[in-house]
Prior knowledge:
Layout: H1 2-27, H2 29-63, H3 67-95, H4 99-102, E1 118-130, E2 150-162, E3 172-180, H5 182-187, H6 197-200, E4 203-212, E5 218-226, H7 246-250, E6 254-263, E7 268-275, E8 289-299, E9 302-311, E10 317-319, E11 333-335, E12 344-354, E13 359-370, E14 385-397, E15 402-414, E16 423-437, E17 440-451, E18 467-480
Antiparallel strand pairs: 1-2, 1-18, 2-3, 3-4, 4-5, 5-6, 6-7, 7-8, 8-9, 9-12, 10-11, 12-13, 13-14, 14-15, 15-16, 16-17, 17-18
Helix pairs in contact: 1-2, 1-3, 2-3
Amino acid sequence: MTIRRFVSVTVVFVLLTFHAAPALSQSNGDEIGQLKQMVIDLQSRVAALERQNGELTNQAAFRGTSGPEAAAALASATADIRRSTTTQSATIQAVAPSDAASAPQASTLPTTLPGGATINYMLDGYYEYNFNRPPGRANDLRAYDVLGNVFSINQADLVFALDPDVTAKRRFGVRFDLQFGQATETLQGNPVNEPRPDIYRNIFQAYGTYVVPVGRGLNVDFGKWASSLGAEGNYTKDQMNYTRSFYFYYLPFYHTGLRTAYHVNDKLSLNYWVVNGANQSEPTNSYKDELFGYVLQPTKTLTWTTNYYLGQENPDVTPATNCPVPVQPGLCLTPIIPAPNGKLHIFDTYATWQATPKLTLQGEADYVIQRVWANAAPGESSAPSHVDGGAAYVQYLLSSRASLAARSEYLSDRGGLFSGTTQALKEATATYEYKFGDGFDGFLEFRRDWSNRPYFQTDHIGSPSDHQNTAAVGLVWWYGGKQGAW
């Protein structure tokens, strides 16, 4: 009976350990190992007791104890231990699955890196039909959807982002956006703006950040970044409409230089830039453009951005073919004497209001004035050119997957700053968006552009039309670890 009591106490201990093991094993792999070892020890003890069975039976006979009774008691205790250890082993296997099952499954494409950096991918393609059927299938005054009646890759993007994290004592960050496709050629395809556009063409953004420990933190960026002039941005997944407005096409796409942002409080932040110029990775003159702006958020549902940009975009050199001294390829230039010194002024403001959880309203107003000469020389004209007007946006969520959006805008182009012709341009766009899944968006869009003079090309050569109608199907795939807008 002494052995039976010992075995009973052992079984009770194992059962108590069994009830505690699941919670512990989920949080501590070492305890799972200890439980496994306990089962092994108990199984060894059972085997040892079974080997002693015969000896105990013989000893009982000499002491006057019935051999069958002792054997039966020992067999019963042994069975209890076997049932307990078997149950314990099964429980441990259930709580601690095999290495193959518990190992994290590798993603098809990596989205995060150690330290908090994210890698993000996007493919944006479309088919658009232009009812004017223009020669060369080129859509007039379109920024990204530049071709009609063909299948097109708008852009393919790879974005690396490491944001500063002051709470983790990391005050620096870096952002790097590579872009390929038709949109890239629109962004950086003009040698008038870039002396060597091919060097920078696929680098949409590349800048480093440091948060200076001043007040709430002074963000300082150095490098090349997307312009915040205008309400719309580069990545289609973050826009209300598939196509971009006239103002997105006209206002600067990017800048290279130094920018700062200071958060005065939760409602107000101030911005200041000093840059090479508008759409200039390398400048065409020595003047440094500046931006002064603020972002006001009086409520959680309303954001209002205002910018003033001062620049001088007229080049002070012209390409040459015969350089008297060795220079880098593409830098053979001849000075323009005297160089035009007229200024560019951009007044830009836009606001976004989340009127209801399903309804978003947005408005934009712009005024641009540019002169070739600040003070006209004899016989030279200093009459300025103007672009002014605005755009209105509305988006309504039909469901968690579907939405309807509309955009309307007016652009007065006096002096041909935007289109090369003095005219009044208007456009209206209607967009249906459907999210097939997380990271896969589809767009159906109809757009009408028109002017107060015949400007848009048609299939009748030499007979332009005063309007241009297009219908588009856009598909956007995006995937990555960065949350929110890119």
